[in-house]
Specification:
The protein has 3 domains: 170 residues, Hypothetical protein af1432 (Orthogonal Bundle), CATH 1.10.3210; 100 residues, CBS-domain (Roll); 131 residues, no CATH class. With 452 residues, the chain is α/β, with parallel strands linked by helices. Strand 7 and strand 8 form a beta hairpin. Helix 1 runs parallel beside helix 3, helix 3 crosses helix 8 and helix 5 packs antiparallel against helix 6. Helices cover 58% and strands 8% of the residues. The chain has a 4-stranded mixed sheet. A 4-stranded mixed sheet has the order 2-3-4-5.
Length: 452
């Protein structure tokens, strides 16, 4: 194993372990999937960068690591491979079929090396999904078959193995042959809305609340320099002013940027970077979109009147405005949990799912709140962890929320409590809770896109 591959394995393992990410159906540590993908690639290619990218292919998509982190640790070539392997669609693009079409187009433009890694990823995912989730496997087979149509430039051995994996799965499910694609006109619907509220007023409040917090409120002005000036002079001034990043103007328009922490061996000219569309948002963009950008990139650039004029980093996400936004979302989740409890156990039998101590605390709070004239019931007086525990005890509710096991549910509850507590006590939420923030932001975009 080369030093590059060893470092990539260690980096990816630590990144996924830090968020306790596990395989959905088996709860194995996520690095088992990465190990399998990297092993498949190593069987057909003596290419350390490809194997490193196989270990890292989900880090930007699933963990707090950014493309900038990947480039700093492993170089531009590995970064490019990981970028090719990272989905680009977002919840606001449309339903699942639309998003998968966008990601398939992105994959079609990828290099042959990246397509080889993607083939290995499909092989392992197909085995896992077919074995454990026959219902979703029917959907996945169609998506994977359509993806194979644009992966023919990948390694031919892995391409044939991927075809065989899909055919084997189809036979196991009783399908005559792997479907080649999903009907683009067939709507995709989730099993159950994550923010499913029968009251129209609450849905409206949720939409108004989440869309009221935009990039404009937290963006900082982006200092800029004329690109015609010598790059070394610009870099010297950026560092002297203790800036993280500066814009580059050409004919009065900001066309790129330069970051202060470029490695010493990189020439100033090479340090000048063009904006990528995925890094640039309108000032009216919702904070959920900002989170999505910062989950993959070190900088989110914001436009004003068509020109890039502002910048947001993860450090800016510690601001009171962002904290208010996140606390509001957690509050909506608590409301959702209470409504699920009332709908699932209308006779109040949910009390049997709580310990005697937790129930007595809720009853004491109920007595105090009613003494003050508040019109509440016992479910309103549960703590966040109690509400979540009750809901997660029911298998149907867990499944509806996309949590197949009690272990997965407990991790979600723990992460949500950590975020809520750190928000309440003004603690660092970026260092400790970024994965939770990213997941919440994704759910917000999904909910807004469905009009929930």
């Amino acid at each position: 194993m080369t030093d590059l591959v060893a470092r990539a394995r260690a980096f990816a393992t630590e990144a996924h372990e830090r968020i306790d990410q596990r395989r959905k159906y088996t709860s194995q540590p996520y690095q088992e999937h990465l190990k399998t993908v990297a092993g498949l690639v190593a069987q057909v290619a003596d290419d350390a960068e490809m194997v490193a990218a196989a270990w890292l292919h989900d880090t930007v998509e699933d963990t707090p690591a950014t493309f900038g982190d990947i480039e700093r640790e492993f170089g531009a070539e590995v970064r490019a491979l990981v970028a090719d392997l990272t989905d680009v669609s977002k919840p606001s693009d449309g339903n699942r079929a639309v998003r998968k079409a966008i990601d398939r187009h992105h994959t079609a433009q990828a290099s042959a090396r990246a397509k080889t890694v993607k083939l290995a990823d499909i092989i392992d995912n197909c085995r896992d999904i077919c074995e454990h989730d026959a219902s979703f496997a029917r959907v996945y087979l169609g998506e994977a078959a359509a993806l194979l149509d644009v992966l023919d430039e990948g390694d031919p051995i892995l391409f044939r193995r991927a075809q065989k994996a899909l055919a084997t799965c189809a036979k196991r499910l009783g399908l005559p042959e792997p479907p080649q694609s999903l009907d683009a006109d067939e709507p995709w619907r989730p099993e159950q809305d994550r923010f499913n509220d029968p009251k129209l007023s609450q849905r409206r409040v949720f939409g108004v609340f989440t869309s009221s917090f935009t990039a404009r409120e937290i963006a900082r002005p982006l200092p800029s320099f004329d690109v015609e000036r010598p790059a070394a002079d610009i870099l010297e001034q950026v560092r002297a002013a203790e800036l993280e990043v500066a814009g580059l103007r050409q004919h009065g328009v900001c066309v790129g940027y330069l970051r202060a922490d470029e490695p010493p061996h990189r020439s100033p000219e090479d340090a000048l970077r063009a904006f990528t569309p995925a890094q640039v948002l309108r000032s009216e963009a919702a904070l959920s979109e900002v989170v999505r950008v910062l989950t993959r990139h070190d900088f989110c650039f914001v436009t004003a009147m068509g020109d890039v004029a502002g910048v947001i980093t993860r450090g800016d996400m510690q601001s009171p405005i962002v904290r208010m936004w996140l606390f509001g979302i957690v509050t909506f989740i608590e409301l959702e949990l209470v409504q699920r409890i009332r709908a699932r156990w209308p006779d109040g039998s949910w009390t049997l799912l709580l310990s005697e101590g937790r129930l007595k605390k809720a009853e004491a709070l109920l007595g105090e709140r009613r003494r003050r004239g508040q019109h509440v019931d016992l479910a309103d007086c549960l703590q966040l962890s109690d509400k979540a525990q009750v809901v997660m005890e029911d298998e149907a509710e867990r499944t509806a929320l996309g949590l197949p096991t009690k272990g997965a549910a407990k991790r979600v509850i723990r992460d949500l409590e950590s975020l809520r507590n750190n928000l309440a006590h003004a603690q660092d939420i970026v260092t400790h809770d970024w994965p939770q923030i990213a997941r919440l932001a994704e759910r917000v975009e999904e909910a807004l896109n469905r009009g929930d």
